[in-house]
Amino acid sequence: MATKIALISEDKDFFNFIKEKLLFRKADELFSFSFDDVPERVHMLSSAVLFINGENMYDKTLDLLDIIKGIPAVVFTYNEDTSFKEKCYEKGVLDCLTILISTKELRSRLIPILNTSSLLQKNIQYREILVSNKLLSQNNEVFLLLHHIQEFLEPLLNILTFQLQHKKSGCQNLQQVSLDF
After folding, report:
1. What's the rounded Cα separation, in Å, for the pair 28 and 47?
2. Residue 51 contacts by C-beta under 8 Å, 6 or more apart in sequence?
């Protein structure tokens, strides 16, 4: 399954840089936004991984991380500003990377994030199917359908009925029946 990757940057070269580094993941969908575009398009980002170019945009990056809580995000910078990285981690960012790292290290750190995001996207889609089929509510309440319960309980009821009938008829040599659920 393709992973949606939203690149957020004021630097147009950032898009080309990341696209070049992720050439091995041809199925992924890449989108590009500026920081000012995000608040009105945050609904589009809920099923994406965000790659945020935080260089020279520290305040905007931290504000953005407040807006996108719960959406997987990776912040890129050119230098190792420890204080900024700590603030990003406190706001829930998955990783902070310097753009100056090798392509091999960049890929090895991003692949697990992208794979996890892909699983989360599948779970979101599966949940939407369950909600649309009225098997799950918006509040995650599971609806038990009577015919599913009957299908599950029918073999058990048959065994119990059989045992009762034989017990009433005086049969003493009933074998113990094990039930595997």
Report:
1. 12
2. 5, 6, 7, 8, 18, 73, 74, 76
The answer to whether residue 181 scores a pLDDT higher than 50 is: no
Enumerate residues 6+ apart whose C-beta is below 8 A from 95: 74, 75, 109, 110, 113
Task: Give residue-wise pLDDT tens across range 67-89.
Answer: 888 888 999 988 778 899 999 99
In this prediction the pTM is 0.68
Position 74 scores a pLDDT of: 93
**For residue 93, pLDDT beyond 80:** yes
SS (H, E, C) 27-54: CCEEEEECHHHHHHHHHHHCCEEEEEEC
DSSP strand pairing (4-8 vs 48-53): parallel
85, 62 Cβ separation under 8 angstroms: no
Q: Is the dihedral angle over the CA atoms 40, 44, 45, 46 positive or is it negative?
A: positive
In one-letter notation, the amino acid at residue 118 is S
Specify the 3-state DSSP secondary structure of 85: helix
Q: How far is CA 177 from CA 156, 172, 180, in A?
A: 10, 14, 10
